[in-house]
Every structure is written in structure tokens, then in C-alpha cells.
Amino acid sequence: MTTRLLPIVFAAALASSALGCNKSEGSAGTATSAVKIDSAAAKEMFNTRCSPCHGTSGRGDGPASAALTPKPRNYTDAAWQKSVTDEQIRKTIVLGGAAVGKSPIMPGSPDLDAKPEVVEGLLQIVRGFGN
Length: 131
Ligand code: HEC
Known about the structure:
Bound molecules: heme C
CATH topology: Cytochrome Bc1 Complex, Chain D, domain 2
Shape: globular
Strand content: under 5%
């Protein structure tokens, strides 16, 4: 009797944890709308990791950009802003330019795969330069 009950108890536990999961927004790392945004961490990361190439004003004119071909993306370019999806920008940030058919000079940040809240913040910063 007890052995026949076990699978039922297990299934019930699974079902209830799945339900709990649905309720807690943001626990699913890749769900776009539910992801939290860590703007402060993203800003710090942009200043240390991205601005040397993309520039503090997002124009692709950071100090390291002089030696680069192609030049880092100028985020203030309205035509470019329209041409890319949020998903492509996220992918570029985490996996690098080569992953989206762009230059491999644009480095990925694989460590951010585990920090969707920072990726989301960086996406906002990149989009913000377009406004
Ligand atoms: C070593 C210099 C360098 C660094 C550091 C760098 N980038 Fe880039 N980035 C580039 C270059 C060069 C391109 C242009 C690639 C192309 O157009 O082929 C680019 C392109 C991009 C694009 C546009 C991709 C597209 O689809 O057009 C985004 C978005 C971007 N970078 C975001 C970032 C973010 C966010 C960071 C910091 C986490 C960062 N980059 C760090 C050099 C850099």
C-alpha cells in the first residue's frame, strides 16, 4: 500500500512546486516580461566593460575604439535602433558579435548568462541612447 502511494505523493509534490513557480514572477530566467532589472549593476558594468569601446555617450567613440575596425556600434543611430530586436541585443551582450553575425571584436559576456537582470539593465541603457 505504501509503495503504491509513493508515486502519487511524488506527483502531487511536483504539481504543487510547479504551481508555486508560476506564482513567483522572475524565477524563470529567460521570461522576458518577468525579469527584474538591476539598473545600478548594469550602469556600473556599462562604465567599466562597455564604455571603453562604445563610449560614455554610446556613440561608439570610447578610447579603445580608435584601433578597431569595424567601429563599435553607435547606439544613437536611429536606423540601427529600429533594425535590431531586444532579443538580438541581449544575445549580442551575452554571446558576442559573432553569435549574431556581427564582428567578433564585440566580445560576449558569458558571465551575464546567469544575471538576466543585468542584461536587461544593459539593454535599457543601449535603448536609452537611442531616445
Ligand atoms: C572591445 C570593444 C568592445 C567592447 C568592450 C564592447 N563592445 Fe559592443 N561592439 C563592439 C564592436 C566593434 C561592435 C560592432 C560589431 C559590428 O557591427 O560588426 C559592437 C556592437 C555592439 C552591439 C550591436 C550589435 C548589433 O546587432 O548591431 C551591441 C548591442 C553592443 N555592442 C553592446 C555592448 C555592450 C552592452 C557591451 C558591454 C557589456 C559591449 N558591447 C562591449 C565592440 C565592443
